[in-house]
Amino acid sequence: MSMRFEVLLRILLLLALGFLGMVPFGQTLTVEGTGGYYNPNPTGVIVPTPNQFHSYDTLTAELMGLNASQSGLVKLEAIGTSVENRTIWALRLTNGTGPKNNIFYMGLHESNEWMSLEVPIYLIHYFLANAKTNPRVQAILQRANLWFIPLVNPDGYEYSRVHDNLWRKNRRVNPDETFGVDINRNYGFQWGVGNFGANTSDIEYRGPEPFSEPETVAVRDFALSNHPVLSLSYHTAGGWVLFPWSYTPQPSQNDGVFRGYALEMFASNGYRLLQEGRSNHVKSGNSDDWLYHMFGTIAFTIELGPAFSSQDTLQIDSVLTSNIEPAILGAELSLHLRDLSCAPRELLCVPTLSVVVLGIPLLAGSVYFGARIARRRREQRLNPDLRENADPASKPSLV
User: Which residue ranges make up each domain of the chain?
Assistant: First the structure.
């Protein structure tokens, strides 16, 4: 099938589904799937999942242990300290030497989203277990530095874990003696647009100025030294894949590329796509917008798992295992080990399977009805009695 013919099929599919009300214009199809409810059989060795959530101390001990036991593949770095002086860790996983692209896997910006910490640390174990035997993993490690920052907000997490499981922000003491800044509203691009989160009591309080918090400064300075081509920032919940722009409902220049990546990456678990600026409100000052603006990073926020699963230990296994394949595919796409199966510069990406299953029948139907209409018009030209506006008296009597 030629590219031109495939593009025509995709256009016809989108138009037809739009007219039928199945897909609103300006949006794209989602891939049917499970939303994280089952394991979509990812490639390679599947390591055991934890049955409880890490604490800051157990996470730190685990990272240090990996740094000591896997020194040929692993390097652990302290990239900053939190308000309460906890270390923010970044673990690099790679193989071989020479210039390489950087890929970020970040967890737990928001204190109460406990599940988001577990995915990056689990992915570390997965990549290590497959580093010597899995060709896909080997190719990625040869071409990239995989950087895992499992716990961006350690103070808030410990407070949420021990004192208040609904706590979202960090533990900054504000001038009015309230606590906390939402660090995923504190990044420097379009910070404060729309005056959202301006009050210290707001659950999404943005802080007094861009990069006022040591946690966002740590990520900023680390990214400035290690420009990422891909960033997956894990959050919870609901099974969504969010992408820039977040500060406005207007699409980015690379809207089709974001959609193409997301459709390909999350076909295995059925997470739904949404430009974040089109969600319930704009979210200016988040990490995705800043990374995309600064470096052109393909940056996603992944809202993990089914709703209300953020702190559910029974969901850990299914959420973790169903997010292995998206992490691998994202790396392969950003490193050009795999090509997109759609044409994002020509139109919004639509899953190839949907084009085959729906596009061809729709095209066939269009051709059929088009031929019927053309035939009827030809007959009307040849026989005036068949014209719709013909004089009723001139038409043959049915009596």
Answer: 1-29+363-382, 31-349
pLDDT value for 200: 94
Question: What pLDDT, on a 0 to 100 scale, did the predictor assign at position 353?
Answer: 42
The whole-model pTM stands at 0.79
Spatial separation of the C-alpha atoms in residues 315 and 332, rounded to whole Å: 27
Give the ranges where the chain is alpha helix by DSSP (H).
Answer: 3-20, 56-69, 115-130, 135-143, 154-162, 214-225, 255-265, 287-295, 316-321, 324-334, 352-354, 360-382
Do 276 and 243 form a contact (C-beta atoms < 8 A)? yes
Q: Which residue has the higher pLDDT, 196 or 137?
A: 137
Which amino acid is present at 375?
Answer: R
Query: Where does the pLDDT of residue 52 fall: very low under 50, low under 70, confident under 90, or very high at 90 and above?
Result: very high
Spatial separation of the C-alpha atoms in residues 338 and 138, rounded to whole Å: 14
- Beta strands of 157-256 (E only): which ranges? 228-236, 240-243
What CATH superfamily is the domain 31-349? Zn peptidases (3.40.630.10)
Burial (CB count within 10 angstroms: exposed 0-12, middle 13-18, buried 19+), residue 382: exposed
User: How many angstroms separate the CA atoms of 196 and 204, rounded?
Assistant: 8
**Residues 356, 104: Cα–Cα separation, whole Å:** 34
Cα 146 to the center of its chain, rounded Å: 17
CA dist., res. 232 & res. 177, Å (int): 34
Tens of pLDDT, residue by residue over 285-342, are 999 999 999 999 999 999 999 988 899 999 999 999 999 999 999 999 999 999 988 7
Residues 6+ apart with CB under 8 A from 108: 114, 116, 117, 150, 151, 152, 153, 157, 234
Amino acid 381 reads R
Pairing of strands 240-243, 298-304: antiparallel
Distance CA 350, CA 250 (A): 20
Cβ(168)–Cβ(223) under 8 Å?
no
Write out the two tokens for 289: 């917008």
Least confident of 27-36, 212-221, 250-259, 321-330: 27-36
For 163-219, the pLDDT digits (tens) are 999 999 999 999 999 999 999 999 999 998 888 889 999 999 999 999 999 999 999
> Using an 8 Å Cβ cutoff, are 306 and 237 in contact?
yes
Pairing label, strands 74-81, 298-304: unpaired
